[in-house]
Amino acid sequence: MGIGAGRAANIKNCELCARKIAEVSDSGKIVVEKSTVPVRTAQAVRRVLECNDKGLKFQVLSNPEFLAEGTAMEDLKAPDRVLIGGVQDEAGIKAAETLVSVYANWVPREQILTTNLWSSELSKLVANAFLAQRVSSINSISALCEATGADVSEISRAVGIDQRIGRRFLNSSIGFGGSCFQKDILNLVYLCETYGLHECAEYWNQVIVMNDYQKKRFTEKMVSSMFNTVTGKKIAILGYAFKKDTGDVRETPSMFVVRDLVLEQAKIHVFDPQVKREDMWIEMDYTCGMTEKTHPGLDKAVTTSPDAYSACDGAHAFAVLTEWDEFKTLDFERIYKGMSKPAFVFDGRNILDHAKLREIGFEVHAIGKPDPNKFSDL
Q1: How far is CA 222 from CA 81, 101, 257, 326, 365, in A?
Q2: What does DSSP assign to residue 88?
Q3: Is 181 helix (H, G, I), strand (E, B) or coil?
Q4: How far apart are CA 269 and CA 280, in angstroms?
Q5: What is the reported pLDDT for 134?
Q6: In degrees rounded to 5, what are phi and psi of residue 115?
Q7: DSSP 3-state of 195
Q8: Phi and psi (nearest 5°) for 159?
Q9: In the chain, which ranges are continuous DSSP H helix?
Q10: Of 250, 278, 296, 364, whose CA is between 20 and 30 Å from 259?
């Protein structure tokens, strides 16, 4: 609600934290921002701290985290870089060096970067925006691959071998999720608009537009492939978390696929090794506004299965939406025997052996992969 709703970050808690620090402190402090915040948030924090009635002096540093969910401890122990931003005066530089000395106990000094406050705050937003941009870029190419008969995996390999581009984040999928990418890009869009940089805002907003398009396109392909209707059909969803090795469902692409399939009146059976049913519904309500109250019958339309085999038993199709390693080694012959025919596979992460699945008898559709039934010159 209010100005910038849905895009601008709410820094209320940062302000409250600064006020509490000023209230309880009896000596000067170095205050470190760890959260991803809009550029110039430190200015607000510093002004609050300076208003203390005890004559205390505070220094505010920006030290954003670059930790990926599922590998946070490894990222902390062996970071690509540590970023520390501070005011560029004698006191600010001294404060930054104090924090540098802490990290220098296990991080090589050349990997500890010091900048001004605003560069540090903005760098974290930009880092996440660039990563999300790569995902949307390769996903846009995946649509072109499916239309032309090209293979997005081969394109990713050919492009990624160029050292100027690199291989990371070039795996096509149903889209990115999680708590960071979309939030930070929308924050960046809002910042650009706030400063009158409308063309820049439109550029970064297109990353979100492409991500939404990819999720919608995947669901539409499922429906069109299954004779233009999934009404009353059992569809197994393998994976609900936004990525493997976590139970996090925030902004997960799986949720949007499930939502759209439910609206098409399919019978959904979900299996994920870590996701709880309660968490699915909480996020569905928060992000999609979809509950049993708003959509009567929702609870019955979505079943959570104890394993992949029960989810797929009797299903017309299964879709892999999270890249869990265990999905690669399932007994697909067993699954095929228990499914309705024709049995459809929709690989939203490109982790399965498509040739082997076709040998078993599945009709396979995958992100950015040419359809043998459509092209005869592959």
Answers
A1: 42, 54, 10, 23, 8
A2: S
A3: helix
A4: 13
A5: 97
A6: -140, 180
A7: coil
A8: -75, -45
A9: 12-24, 41-50, 72-77, 90-103, 117-148, 152-160, 181-194, 198-225, 253-263, 277-283, 298-301, 308-312, 332-338, 354-360
A10: 364
Q: 245 near 70, Cβ under 8 Å? A: yes
Per residue in 240-280, pLDDT (tens digit) is: 999 999 999 999 999 999 999 999 999 999 999 999 999 99
Q: Which residue has the tokens 């790569």?
A: 134
Residues 6 or more apart from 293 whose CB is under 8 A from it? none
Burial 351-374 (b: 16+ CB within 10 A, else e): bbebeebeeeebbbbbbbbbeeee
What CA–CA distance (Å, rounded) separates 43 from 59? 11
180 is a catalytic site residue: yes
Of the pLDDT bands very low, low, confident and very high (cuts 50, 70, 90), residue 9 is: low
pLDDT at 121: 87
For range 312-340, the mean pLDDT: 98
Is residue 288 within 8 Å of residue 259, measured between CB atoms? yes
From the list 180, 200, 288, 312, the catalytic residue is 180
Q: Tell me what the mean pLDDT of segment 332-347 comes to.
A: 98
Return the bridge partners of 115, or none.
85
Report the alpha-carbon distance of residue 254 to residue 104 in Å, rounded.
41
d(CA 188, CA 204): 8
Distance CA 222, CA 237 (A): 12
| pLDDT tens per residue across span 185-243 | 999 999 999 999 999 999 999 999 999 999 999 999 999 999 999 999 999 999 999 99
- Residue 216's contacts (CB-CB under 8 Å, 6 or more residues apart) are 256, 260
Query: Exposure of 284 by Cβ count < 10 A (0-12 exposed, 13-18 middle, 19+ buried)?
Result: buried
Q: Structure tokens of 215? A: 């999720």
